[in-house]
Specification:
Elements (H helix, E strand, L loop, with lengths): L1 H27 L5
């Protein structure tokens, strides 16, 4: 059970960081889309 919970936490952290990376890339590319 703890392993499954840990996996969920890791996956959500990854999706959050990829979303942040996309937002940062958009900002660097010069604009809000």
């Amino acid at each position: 059970m703890k392993i499954k919970t840990l996996a969920i936490v890791v996956l959500s952290a990854l999706s959050l960081s990829s979303t942040a990376a996309l937002a940062a890339a958009t900002t660097v590319n010069g604009g809000t889309v």
